[in-house]
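hi! just following up on the protien thing from before. the input was this:
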Amino acid sequence: MSKASQYIVGLAGHIDHGKTSIVHSLTGENTDNLKEEIDRGMTINIGFSFLTENITLIDVPGHERFIKNMLAGVNSIDYALLVIAADDGIMPQTIEHFEILKLLNITKGSIILNKVDLVDTDWLLLVENEIKDFVKETFLENAPIHKVSTKTNSGIEELKNYLIKSQNFIKESKREIFRLFVDRSFISKGFGTVVTGTVISGNISVGDKIKILPYNKLTNIRGLQTHDKSVDKLNFGDRGAINFQSIDKIAISRGNHISDPNHFSCYEAAYVSMKLLSKLDKSIKNNERIRIYSGTQEVMARIFFANKKEVEPGEKACALLKFEKPTILAWNDVFIIRTYSPLITVGGGKILDLDCYSKWKDNKEHIISISTCNNKQDLIEKIINSKKLNPHTITSLGNHLSLTKEQLMNYMNENTSIK
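and the predicted 3d structure came back as:
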């Protein structure tokens, strides 16, 4: 199991609560570099800035129209900064962004109470108490509240020192195979296509062969960069840029996937566990068309429950997702669910198994079977037993789950019933 040496800090919160200004105050860089962003004074795309050689800040849009860009930005963060303006308090996108952070299983973070120069002491105390109630019984319940002003720079140096000195960022990878979702792609004169993203597992070196999904295109790594420096290798957790030797006739974009050539694939269906947010005013009905966000990709899907006509707010369920286009997924990936229209975040889930049977009867049986699993070892056993007519080998099962042989054997050795 490898540990990361770089850490990704994501800023989330309502529009105009000062996320971009905070990044600028911390680093001296303006992450709003699109003409439309500058003209409109709002973040539209994802912004990146380096706080130190091993800490990257990600600034995501606060406007509800750009939630899909926000999701692409926070999919790989290790530490969340929930930004709330003192003069506004908790607003609609504060709530939605916070729900998304929880659904993505972000477990570490703190709160920035910005624009403290605009309010008096009594109002500041009221907002602070409101925030404490808002985050009660969540991963931010006992988190620090950093009071700052980007106008006066009050609290900025203390926030910077906290982020640099904090030991809360250490993360571990339970999958050793190289993988990266593309969040930006551009043409660099003299080099060709360059993509950026965060290494979510494994490592890659200059000269290595990789696979680009969904195109299933093989090519070699020409060059690598991290934090504006050329390197020979990118490791798990690194924020990096990749330059390829040759990728003629394909246009790489956000949502594409770079990986080890022998693992990871596109799928037209997946078995999932899911949970709806409790504070909703609608349910999800069987065969409903929904939006799925996983990694940096957005895809439409139909959802099918085995023994339910609909799932109510706050309820958990297992289901089959059928995607409208081949989707890049792996066992144990997490995802966010939003309604087709209007665009509302309603829940999230995890991938339990991939591919599906041709007959609904078989799919229904498999959904019911895996819905009873209490841990990953039980789930792997159910996956093995589901292939009785075409049993897995160790190699094929490792490929199916995108695990190395050693990782797979570790899981299997923890469950003696598999042997």
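The two ends are 23 Å apart (CA to CA).
Confidence is low (pLDDT under 50) at residues 32-45, 62-66.
cheers
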